[in-house]
Amino acid sequence: MANKFRDRRNYLASAEYFIDKLHNINDAGLNVALVSENATADGAVFVVHHGLTPRSAGEIITVKVSALDGGGTGVSIVSRCVLRAQFIDFGKNRANAAAVFNYLERSIHAAPDGDC
Fold this sequence. Notes:
Blueprint: E1 4-11, H1 15-23, E2 32-40, E3 43-50, E4 59-67, E5 73-81, H2 92-110
Antiparallel strand pairs: 1-5, 2-3, 3-4, 4-5
């Protein structure tokens, strides 16, 4: 329950598919706001802000999407408290990462064949 949580998952879907989904994260019902996007050589890095809640003063969620050698896509998520002095996050950062992964995975399962 530190002030940061990190997780990574690999998928068979293309990096472009995840990048497109992350462009629409504001409409996903996660109560987050897309702050920035930076292209990388093999994908993109998104920075998302989750606002003030009773459990925290907000979190910064960094999502890195990168194409894997041999096909597929790696998605890394780091969620950290906005206030670095906040030592305990009460599970909020883990919940943020799980919510973003759930959104991305729900999107994969809902895609018509061949779209990812």
